[in-house]
Structure prediction request, 357 residues.
Amino acid sequence: MSKTILVLPGDGIGPEIMAEARKVLDKLNAQHNLGIKVEEDVVGGAAIDADGVPLPDRTLAKARAADAILFGSIGGPKWDNIERSIRPERGLLKLRSELGLFANLRPAILYPQLAGASSLKPEIVAGLDILIVRELTGGIYFGQPRGIRTLENGEREGYNTDIYRESEIRRIAKVAFELAAKRGNKVCSVDKANVMEVTELWKQVVTEVAKDYPAAQLSHMYVDNAAMQLVRAPKQFDVIVTGNLFGDILSDEASMLTGSIGMLPSASLDESGKGMYEPCHGSAPDIAGQGVANPLATILSLAMLFRYSLNLPQVATQIEQAVGKVLDQGLRTADIYSEGTRKVGTKEMGDAVVAAL
Ligand code: IPM
Ligand code: MG
Prediction:
C-alpha cells in the first residue's frame, strides 16, 4: 500500500532545509520504487499569513491522514507580537497534542568527523551517543490554568501549571526502557523531586515501571545536576527520560555537545508509532533566506521517519551513511565549519547528500 508523507516546511530557514530533504526523499522514492506520495501544506507563521491561524484545519486533517509528517521549523520576529494563543509555536504544540505525539526522541550523536566542532574537548565528547526521551504532550507546556492576570493592586502576575498524570509518566517511561534495551540499557530519569511534587510523582512512577525491566539500570538525577553533568561528563548517559520542559532545555544543551544543533534530528511518536519528524533547531530567522542553513538535521529526521514510521531501516541507514560520507568529504555548512574543511551552503550540502545516496 502506498504511504503518504506530509511535508510542512514552516518558517524561517524551514523552507530552505526542507527543499534539500525533499531532494533526498524524491531520490530514494525513485531509486527504490517506494511509491511514496508527498503532500505539502503550511503551518506556523506561514499559516497565519495564509489562513489567519498557525494550524489550519486543512493542515491538521492532512496530518491525521498521513502516515508520517516531516516538519521544518516555525516562528520568527514577524509573528512575535500577535496574540499568544495564535502564535506560530501554538501550531506546533497543537499538532503534537492533537496527534497524541507524546514520545519525543532526540538523539545526540557525535559524528567523529565533527569532534573538533564541539565546544567541549574532543576526549569529552568522542563517541558520544545519548538519546533524550522527552515527554511532549503534557507538563507545564499544556497544564491549566495558565495565563497572565492583573491582581487587585494592579500588578500583573504570570502563571503556568506543571501537571502529570501517572498514566502519562508510565507510557513515556516505557518508551524509554524499551529503547534503552536496544542500546546501553541505562536510563537516567531527570526530575526536580527535591522541590516539585509533580516530579516527585514522576520519580516514583518511573521507579515502578523499572520493575518490568529488571535488566535495565535506572538512575535519577535532579535537572540542575543533569545540566551540569551533560557538559562535565556527557558519556555517562545512555538514555535520559524527562518531562516536557526539562527535555526541551536539556536537548538543546545536548545538541551542542555534538558540534551544532544543526545536526540534530528528532522523532515524535504516538502510541502506534505514527510520527512527526523535525530538526531540533528552530527557524533561525537571523540566517533565513541566505542559503547557509545546515539541512542535515532535517535530512537525518527523514532517516528517522523511514526507520520508525515506514519500517524501512535500510533506507534510514542509507541516508545516515550518505551524511557520514559527505562529512568525510570535508563539506561543512557554516555552523559546523572548522579550519581545513570546505564551507558550503544549504543547497550544495543537500546535493552532496543526494549524490552520496
Ligand atoms: C522544540 C521547540 C518547541 C518546544 C517550541 C518551538 C514550541 O523549542 O521543539 O524544542 O518548546 O517544544
Ligand atoms: Mg526546544
Summary: The radius of gyration is 20 Å. The first helix runs from residue 14 to 31. Residues 89, 92-93, 248 surround 3-isopropylmalic acid (ligand 1) (CB under 6 Å).
